[in-house]
Amino acid sequence: MKKHKLRIKLPVGKIETVIEDPEAGRRGLALIAHPHPLHGGSLDNKVAWTLARAAVNQGLVAVRPNFRGVGASEGHFDHGIGETEDLLGLAASIASHYPDLPWTLMGFSFGAYVQHRVAARLHADRLILVGPAVTLYDFAGPAIPAHIIHGVEDELIPIAAVRKYAHSHGIPLHEIEGAGHFFHGKLKPLQALVESLCR
User: Fold this and answer.
1) 76 CB contacts (<8 Å, ≥6 apart)?
2) DSSP single-letter state for residue 101
3) Model's pTM, two decimal places?
4) Paired residues of 13 in beta bridges
5) Strand order of the sheet with strand 2-10?
6) CATH value of 2-197 in 3.40.50.1820, 3.90.180.10, 2.170.130.30, 3.30.70.890
7) pLDDT of 94-113, one tens digit each?
């Protein structure tokens, strides 16, 4: 596996991005969005990191940016609107180096909200929403085939609200017993589940 840390130039400025390329058996691209930038979210978040591990293990090039204003990324927080534009810009830039590879979109918490917006404008095979913050943001129905992974004991986004959202839009919901919002002690089952969805 090759790992690169880049600062990719976009209209907002340079966006810090880690790219992990499995090289052997490469079969797709995974764009991974971290949790809320104003609450400590970054590309180093352990859930975002776990999503990247799952992607690489399934032959996907894991693309893990810092949202604008986080780490070495320029710009300022924009409530998911500018962040959507940034991810679309990143996807276009990176796809030019990996032509004809399909996208998988993954997002955690606030990142899930951004990715469900990206999915409406980027051609991708699948959308994986982890701990989606459906009680904090206006989630529409996903534009592409989607799956939700949520902790039954989530203390921030109640599982009942996620069940309601999933049911109303016909989205398969995968519940992890004993898991809170940040999946403490449950990263291994989370990774295994994501890998199964990427096969």
Assistant:
1) 68, 69
2) P
3) 0.98
4) 10
5) 2-10, 13-21, 60-65, 28-33, 103-108, 126-130, 146-151, 173-176
6) 3.40.50.1820
7) 999 998 999 999 999 999 99
